[in-house]
Structure formats: structure tokens, C-alpha cells
Amino acid sequence: MMEKTIEETKAYLGMWVTTDGYVRHELLKGGRYDEARGDRKSAYQGNYRVSGNHIDYKDDTGFSADGEFCDGVLYHGGMVFYKEDN
Questions:
Q1: Phi-psi region for residue 85, left (φ > 0), alpha (ψ -120 to 50) or beta?
Q2: In total, how many domains does the chain have?
Q3: Which residue in 42, 36, 45, 38 sits closest to 22, CA to CA?
Q4: What does the alpha-carbon distance between residue 73 and residue 56 come to, in Å, rounded to a whole number?
Q5: Which residues contact 27 (CB under 8 A, 6 or more apart)?
Q6: Which of 16, 38, 65, 71 has most Cβ atoms within 10 angstroms of its Cβ?
Q7: Which pLDDT value is given to residue 1?
Q8: For the domain that residue 14 is a member of, what is the CATH number?
Q9: What is the pLDDT along the chain (86 residues), one digit of tens a residue?
């Protein structure tokens, strides 16, 4: 039996943080995200799309980036994010 992708499980929803807590990505229902950096809440906002274990971002200024989910970790923009427990 094949393991389901993060797209299928929707496990990507929620807050993803770097180990130092400086960068925080909140992936919201409906394909929107809100990124905080340091003391700057909502430093960047935009849309995202998950396909399999891949994520594509496009912020409201038009900047785009992508990342990969692997074994419960998000690799994006040279950074490593871990899902915050709720």
C-alpha cells in the first residue's frame, strides 16, 4: 500500500516554523498563507498550491517560490520548517 501524499491528507494545513522560530508560515484553508518574520506579523501574504508533496507559493506582490514536504518536514527557500503542534 502506498503512503498518501500531504496533498491527500491535508496535513500541510497549520503553522510551520523554523527551528529558531524566526520565520513562520501559516498555511490556511482555501489556499492562502500568512508569513511572519521575527516581530513582523503578516510580513508576507499570498496564495499557495499543494500538488502531491510539492508546494508553490505566490505572494501578493507577485514573488513566487516553491518547496517540498518530506517526512513531515517542509524544505523551502533554503530553510527547514517543522509543523507546530496545536
A1: beta
A2: 1
A3: 38
A4: 15
A5: 12, 13, 14, 15, 16, 33, 48
A6: 16
A7: 64
A8: 2.40.128.290
A9: 678 999 999 999 999 999 999 999 999 999 999 999 999 999 999 999 999 999 999 999 999 999 999 999 999 999 999 999 85
Residue 22 is assigned to a structural domain of this protein: yes
Identify the domain containing residue 59 by its residue range: 6-83
pTM of structure:
0.92
* The amino acid at 79: M
In this structure, is residue 44 part of a structural domain? yes
C-alpha cell at 43: 510580513
For CA atoms 8, 10, 11, 16, the dihedral sign is positive
Answer whether residue 1 is part of any domain. Answer: no
